[in-house]
Structure formats: structure tokens, C-alpha cells
Design a protein that fits this description.
Layout: H1 2-15, H2 20-29, E1 31-32, H3 33-38, H4 40-43, E2 47-57, E3 64-68, E4 75-80, E5 95-108, H5 109-122, H6 129-148, E6 153-166
Parallel strand pairs: 1-2, 4-6
Antiparallel strand pairs: 2-3, 2-5, 3-4, 5-6
Helix pairs in contact: 1-2, 5-6
Length: 168
């Protein structure tokens, strides 16, 4: 699959009039989001280029976007830093190669316990049942990951984005 993505990016770069050398160079060093998350714990605080599809940009200031990989099962939050002033709403649906620094946020077991208590307090409020059920499901997923990985914290990976190139 990596070869197919490389060929698609290379073909796109060759057909493009502007920036073709830059896009071809990006495809040689970039990693697909799905592949990155398998080894993310080894890449924290490293500068790297990740490829993914934009699913959402923050509407107010555009300081964040979210990307997914080919599987669309996992997402990564990207913060606008470096040369990136903002992510425009027009990027939604675009395939980007984003260069930045991979970061992690650790949620402690205690934090997750407190969060669960807060959600349970909201559970009985009108119109909150569906939201609370989703959040409680997320909390259960976090606890399962912690147990499966023998950790006393849950990790959320994100990226401080420095630059990006649109690949499609």
C-alpha cells in the first residue's frame, strides 16, 4: 500500500506545474498517519512529515486541524505553529503532508477517574444522555488501552505543525 501511495503522490507531483520537485521530495520522506501511530511512542519530540486527510479545521482562528490516515480509524490533532498561521476551512478533504514535531499528552489514571465522575454527574441532565454515553465509552476504551499496554496513563498524540503541502 505504501508503494501505491508513493506512486499516486509521485504521479500527482509530475502532473502538477508548480512545486513538483517539492511534492516529490515530500513523498520520499513522509510517513502515512496509520504507520506513524504504530511507532509514535518512539518518535515523540522528533520532527517528521506525516501524510493524512483533513477532516476538520477549527472555525474560529484555524489554529488546529485534524487529519486521518487511509484507514480513517485514527486521527491526529495538528496545532498551527512555525510557518503555519492557520488552517483554512477549504483544506477539509485535502490530503496534506505536514511537517512538525510529534508531541504526546498523558492523561493519568486519576485524571480519567475525575473525568468519569464529571461525566456521570451530567448523565441525568436533559439532552446529555447520548453525549455522556459516548464519553463513557471513550473512557472505557482508554482504560482498556492502559490495561492492554500495562500503563498507568493514556496517551494522546498530537503534532505542532510547522509547514504543510497540499498533495491533491
Amino acid at each position: 500500500m505504501k508503494q501505491l501511495v508513493f506512486l499516486a503522490v509521485l504521479a500527482s507531483a509530475l502532473l502538477s506545474c508548480s512545486g513538483s520537485q517539492k511534492q516529490a521530495a515530500v513523498s520520499d520522506t513522509a510517513v502515512e498517519l496509520d504507520q506513524l501511530l504504530v511507532v509514535a511512542d518512539q518518535k515523540v519530540d522528533n520532527t517528521l512529515t506525516v501524510v493524512g486527510y483533513v477532516t476538520h479545521t477549527c472555525k474560529h482562528a484555524g489554529k488546529k486541524c485534524f487529519i486521518v490516515g487511509e484507514s480513517q480509524e485514527v486521527s491526529l490533532r495538528v496545532e498551527a505553529e512555525g510557518e503555519i498561521e492557520a488552517f483554512s476551512a477549504e483544506l477539509v478533504g485535502s490530503k496534506l503532508a505536514i511537517t512538525g514535531i510529534l508531541k504526546e499528552q498523558r492523561l493519568s489514571r486519576e485524571y480519567i477517574d475525575e473525568y468519569e465522575n464529571d461525566v456521570k454527574q451530567l448523565e441525568g441532565q436533559e439532552g446529555m444522555a447520548e453525549t455522556c454515553a459516548a464519553e463513557l465509552s471513550n473512557i472505557n476504551d482508554m482504560r482498556k488501552w492502559m490495561a492492554d499496554n500495562n500503563k498507568d496513563y493514556y496517551v494522546i498524540y498530537y503534532m505542532d505543525g510547522l509547514t504543510y503541502d497540499v498533495l491533491d
